[in-house]
Amino acid sequence: MWTLLHGFTGAPRSWSRVLNHAQLDRSPVVPALAGHGQDWRSRDVESFEVELTRLLAVASGADRPRLLCGYSMGARVAIGLLAQQLHLFDAALLIGVHPGLIDDAARTARRELDAGRARSLREKGLAEFVAGWEDLPLFASQRNLSREVLAEQRETRLAQDAEGLARALEVLGLAEMPDYRAAIRSSEVPITLMTGSLDSKFSEIASALARESAHIDAEVVEGVGHNVVLEAPMAVAAALQRLEGRGRG
């Protein structure tokens, strides 16, 4: 059974197009990450590690084969889950994942960046933040998507709470997670790292990690950018089905 973790500004419904294409054995577990959804205060956590503990309890209730998938922020959280309890999972699909920052200078710079974003959410509001977020170069490839798809994504983002997203940045931001490279390299759990071919930064990260472990595969989806879940849901669905079959075996 799959546990699916959405990205920043996303929601459980962000997986709907993927699940419409996938023929999974069982309905997946699709929790909301800390800071997301109008009920985020009922799931407010103090640290990255506390969020891992919360989600490990959620994932442990899934049936075997126990499979894990995350996108972007959700993929980073998924790495943390794998690092803490490898025996819990049978396979993983990580989409657009960063394994963690290596040096203190990079960590400080990212913490300052995310603090600025959190401040913008609190001072300027959700709508202005979302407009700026959608204009980031990381998401430029999404301009080729249909108005319907983009409207659904914007609706999901605007349904969030500004304070909740600010808290998500402060708790689950890249600077708040450990460097998990060593943990992934030593893993014997089959891990597929999926990226879009137009997302060169994260494709390079995935290729480097795959070269370091026989249990890690890098899969590139042609013609799409960072958010493969949104831009190529059929490719993600196919990967879920393939790994589900491997887990059964």
How is this structure best described in words?
There is one protein chain. The chain is of the alpha/beta class and 249 residues long. It has a single domain, classed as Alpha/Beta hydrolase fold, catalytic domain (Rossmann fold), CATH 3.40.50. 48% of the residues lie in helices and 10% in strands. The protein contains eleven helices and five strands; from the N terminus they run E-H-H-E-H-E-H-H-H-H-H-E-H-E-H-H. A five-stranded parallel β-sheet has the order 1-2-3-4-5, with helices on both faces. The two termini are 14 Å apart.
Low-confidence stretches: none
CATH class: Alpha Beta
Largest sheet descriptor: 5 strands, parallel
Architecture in CATH?
Answer: 3-Layer(aba) Sandwich
Biggest sheet: strand arrangement: 1-2-3-4-5
What is the H/E order? EHHEHEHHHHHEHEHH
Domains counted in the coordinates: how many?
Answer: 1
* Cα-based radius of gyration, to the nearest Å: 17 Å
Mean pLDDT: 95
What share of residues are in beta strands? Answer: 5-15%
Fill in the CATH topology: Rossmann fold
| Spatial gap, N to C terminus | 14 Å
- The number of helical elements comes to 11
Instruction: Write down the overall geometry.
Output: globular
Count of DSSP E strands? 5
Helix share, percent = 40-55%
The CATH superfamily is: Alpha/Beta hydrolase fold, catalytic domain
